[in-house]
Specification:
CATH architecture of the largest domain: Up-down Bundle
Radius of gyration: 20 Å
CATH class of the largest domain: Mainly Alpha
CATH superfamily of the largest domain: Dehydroquinate synthase-like - alpha domain
Number of strands: 8
Mean pLDDT: 97
Strand order of the largest sheet: 1-8-5-4-2-3
Strand content: 5-15%
Structural class: alpha/beta
Largest sheet: 6 strands, parallel
Helix content: 40-55%
Bound molecules: 5,6-dihydroxy-NADP, zinc ion
Number of helices: 15
Length: 385
């Protein structure tokens, strides 16, 4: 088991009716910037609950943060935060609204060109406004982590930064807010969480039993409750288990003591920035192909996954690994995210641009062994044609 440092100060209020706890988290008379997306919160009662809880605060609104939040949009919110002398940002929505709000929180206190925060990274963030969240889409774990992914639309750059200063101070997770999610977003959330777990699990064994068994328990929950959420959309317990799984998948717990990969995400981000695929669609394409490409190096963990999660016991090791990959592809397809580039009308001619973008972004050696080059990434995508 490897060394680690674990830090996660985000307070979580989980369950029915918890939006009312905003009253305890945000002091009366605070100047609050309420950030949200394209308007889903105004049609499902979340907006009313939030305003009700913030009656004694001065609330300023910034809506219109799009999926894969655009830098071009976020800098407008930064101007509002500065002009209105905002005390606290409250992000209400999915990962895009929360990620965007992390950037706003940091950029509102940054003296130089705010794009530095993305290109230099979180190390240049010295201060940030406090951030609270009301999560409405279980997927990214952003509600309980230090990461933010921002897209500069003009240059098709989708890049991330991380800083402890933008970790949410608190996050409210009421599974009832997820009832209005379209099936596509339920599916995206389950696949994204699944891949977050795998980026921290599917590497090589280091005898870190706690992280491994946490990961396996969460994977089993997704395999059960992902399809269940599509089949029985009004089942509270299914929604609750999915929501907490998505948070646990990327709140730092699973990486304790283990190597991590993250190459599926790196390649996937380029596919989204170049061709507009949903984040989870890109992951469903890349991960199975990457496992096939790296199956010798990932052999120990692929077999562990096959045995402990998928209960595969028959056949040679080679056959067990291939079956485990196929069953994973079946799960993604069952969730509505097929696993081939051709399923999204992409072909061989779309691959070189991904290789070029990875090179441009300095992602020259990724994966747990730092041996996946942009050329390898192109070969991986060719396995997913
Ligand atoms: O904008 P609104 O109108 O709210 O609609 C959203 C959006 O269209 C809708 N939605 C959210 N909650 C809803 C709802 N619709 C109905 N009812 C609800 N309760 O869902 C759509 C997608 O929302 P979005 O926030 O974009 O989805 P998600 O949570 O999957 O976030 C994706 C973004 O997070 C980044 C991704 O790259 C992408 O930019 N990630 C962030 C990570 C992190 N911070 O740690 C890690 C992830 O790997 C990921 O990269
Ligand atoms: Zn992800």
């Amino acid at each position: 088991m490897d060394n680690f440092t674990y830090f996660n100060p985000t307070k979580v209020h989980f369950g029915k009716g918890q939006i009312a706890t905003l009253k305890e988290e945000i002091s009366p008379n605070s100047r609050v910037l309420l950030t949200y997306g394209g308007g889903s919160i105004k049609t499902n009662g979340v907006y009313e609950q939030v305003l009700d809880a913030l009656k004694e605060c001065a609330v300023f609104e910034f809506g219109g943060i799009e999926p894969n939040p655009h830098y071009e949009t976020l800098i407008k919110a930064v101007a509002v935060a500065k002009q209105e002398q905002i005390d606290v940002i409250l992000a209400v929505g999915g990962g895009s609204v929360i990620d965007g709000s992390k950037f706003i929180a940091a950029a509102a206190c940054y003296e130089g060109d705010s794009w530095d925060i993305i290109t230099i990274g979180g190390g240049c963030v010295q201060r940030a406004l406090p951030l609270g969240c009301v999560l409405t889409l279980p997927a990214t774990g952003s509600e309980m982590n230090r990461n933010s992914v921002v897209t500069r639309a003009a240059t098709q750059d989708k890049l991330s930064f991380g800083s402890d200063l933008v970790r949410p101070v608190f996050s409210i997770l009421d599974p009832q807010t997820t009832y209005t999610l379209p099936a596509r977003q339920i599916a995206n959330g389950a696949v994204d969480s699944f891949v977050h777990i795998m980026e921290q699990y599917m590497t090589y064994p280091v005898n870190a039993k706690v992280s491994d068994r946490f990961a396996e328990g969460l994977l089993l929950t997704l395999l059960e409750d992902g399809p269940a959420a599509l089949a029985t959309p009004d089942d509270y317990d299914v929604r609750a288990n999915l929501m907490w799984t998505a948070t646990m998948a990327l709140n730092g717990t699973l990486k304790n003591g283990v190597p991590t990969d993250w190459s599926t995400h790196a390649i996937g981000h380029e596919l989204t920035a170049l061709y507009g695929l949903d984040h989870a669609q890109t992951l469903a394409i890349v991960m199975p192909a990457l496992w096939r490409y790296k199956k010798e190096q990932k052999k120990g963990k692929l077999l562990q996954y096959a045995h402990r999660v998928l209960n595969i016991t028959e056949g040679t090791e080679e056959q067990q690994i291939e079956l485990a990959i196929q069953k994973t592809e079946d799960f993604f397809s069952q969730m509505g995210n097929p696993t081939r580039l051709s399923d999204y009308n992409l072909t061989e001619k779309d691959i070189p641009a991904v290789q070029e973008k990875l090179t441009e972004h300095g992602l020259l050696a990724i994966g747990e062994h730092k041996d996946i080059t942009p050329h390898d990434a192109a070969e991986i995508l060719r396995l997913a044609l």
